[in-house]
Structures are given as structure tokens and as C-alpha cells.
Prior knowledge:
- It is a single chain.
- The chain is α/β, with parallel strands linked by helices and 168 residues long.
- The protein has one domain (18-166): Rossmann fold (3-Layer(aba) Sandwich).
- The protein is 28% helix and 18% strand.
- It is built from four helices and five strands.
- The chain has helices at 25-36, 78-83, 105-112, 125-145; strands at residues 18-23, 40-46, 62-67, 89-94, 162-166.
- It has a five-stranded mixed beta sheet.
- The longest helix has 21 residues, at 125-145.
- It is globular, with a radius of gyration of 17 Å.
Amino acid sequence: xxxxxxxxxxxxxxxxxxxxxxxxxxxxxxxxxxxxxxxxxxxxxxxxxxxxxxxxxxxxxxxxxxxxxxxxxxxxxxxxxxxxxxxxxxxxxxxxxxxxxxxxxxxxxxxxxxxxxxxxxxxxxxxxxxxxxxxxxxxxxxxxxxxxxxxxxxxxxxxxxxxxxxxx
Length: 168
């Protein structure tokens, strides 16, 4: 589509700046995709269990975003997974988040069912989505565009809702 003159995407895609991300099982897929596809330069797993990583050393920048309610509930050995990363690697815990908060459904629920927080966290939907979009943008800007990522670099601007740990 990038090379098709009739496509609305003609000459608009930078194939040298590809990142992979996903939530839950899609997050696990982002790790596998970054490992297998040389075009992918960086990846984010948003609260997803990484399967079959043991023999897959990831040499690209990688971030693992974790909801507060799952930070102590690991379906896989995250330390071992981090041992399999050789590029810059971050673990970011989102306080006030549940697994479902990352899915965006909280935007719908907050208006129609404001007292319903099961699966959607204790943080406001608007704030949750600000945090998600900003951390995703900063990570990819840093590794795909050589820009700064102040929240990941843990300076005074890092929001109190985030616990950032640079693993590698």
C-alpha cells in the first residue's frame, strides 16, 4: 500500500520505524513478532503473559506494562523473560489499573455504569487512557524516532500512578 500510487497510504508509511504492541494475548504476540520480524524495531506487551519465550532472546527495546492488580500475579516467570531481553527493557506498573483498564472499555462503563469498577480499576477512564497513550507514545518516540521519554527515564515528570523499572 505504501508503494501503490492509488492507495491512500502511498508514501506515508515509514518501514524503518515499525513497532509492535498489544494488550493481553496481543501483548504476548508483540514479543513474538519483535523476535521473529526483523522489521520491528521495538515492542510493548500490555499486561499479557508471554508464552514460549524461553528460547527466544529479544535484542530489541521492549516494555512490559503491568496492571496493579496483576503485578503480583504472574502467569509466567517475568524475571526469566527479562533475562531473555538484551535491548533496553522496561517494566512499568500502572497503579489503579486492572487488566481490563488497558482495553479501553472503561470509557464506556464510566458513563453508563459509574459504580462498576470490577475489571476496570480504580483510576478514572480519562486519566487511564492519558497514561496509556502517553507511555506508548514516549516509548516508541524514544526507540523509533530517537526522541526523549521523560516518564520512562523517571524524572520529576513521571506520574505518581506509574512505577518504572529499567531492567536492561
